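Run log // design_07
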């Protein structure tokens, strides 16, 4: 049985494509490595540093610290020969989470103040410059009704990244940010 995979029909038979990510200690896919095909909260026992990554299938979020905390990095299918290629701040990856395949609608409501108060706006599309649309860069709470989203610290999808699954986020600290400042947001649409 596959986990978080795309299943389809090929020649009358069901087909599984398993999501898989490979972490390498050294640049250019060298050194000790670890393969992962599901969420993993603590990877320190498997490698001491991470300088390159291959995503064979699926979308993943890699985290700087254990238990899905610290800097977050959205990784789509492809090769990342050094940590700068995934906008990494350092060579430390300690946990990862698979983004389940999703082909439905996207809907999120953002709020200027915590506990779903203040100025608000419903989002259904990517927004490269939040200040232009929302007239503020502060998002203090969010309700993700449909789909998976990435918030970016700066406009045009730059800076720190914050992964949001469906659910309620009463304050910015619940998605891992120390500040409510968000410059852009986008839907996670690249799945196998």
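design_07 sequence
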């Amino acid at each position: 049985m596959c986990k978080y995979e795309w299943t389809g029909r090929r020649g009358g038979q069901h087909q599984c494509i398993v999501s898989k990510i490979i972490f390498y200690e050294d640049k250019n896919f060298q050194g000790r490595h670890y393969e992962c095909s599901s969420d993993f909260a603590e990877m320190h026992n498997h490698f001491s540093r991470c300088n390159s990554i291959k995503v064979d299938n699926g979308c993943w979020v890699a985290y700087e610290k254990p238990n899905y905390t610290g800097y977050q990095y959205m990784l789509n299918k492809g090769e990342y020969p050094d940590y700068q290629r995934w906008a990494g701040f350092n060579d430390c990856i300690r946990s990862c989470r698979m983004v389940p395949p999703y082909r439905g609608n996207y809907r999120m409501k953002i709020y200027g103040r915590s506990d779903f108060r203040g100025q608000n706006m419903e989002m259904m599309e990517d927004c490269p410059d939040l200040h232009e649309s929302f007239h503020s860069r502060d998002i203090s709470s969010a309700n993700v009704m449909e789909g998976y989203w990435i918030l970016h610290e700066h406009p045009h999808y730059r800076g720190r990244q914050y992964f949001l699954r469906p659910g309620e986020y009463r304050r910015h600290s619940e998605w891992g940010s120390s500040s409510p400042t968000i410059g852009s947001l986008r839907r996670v649409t690249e799945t196998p």
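The helical segments are 130-134.
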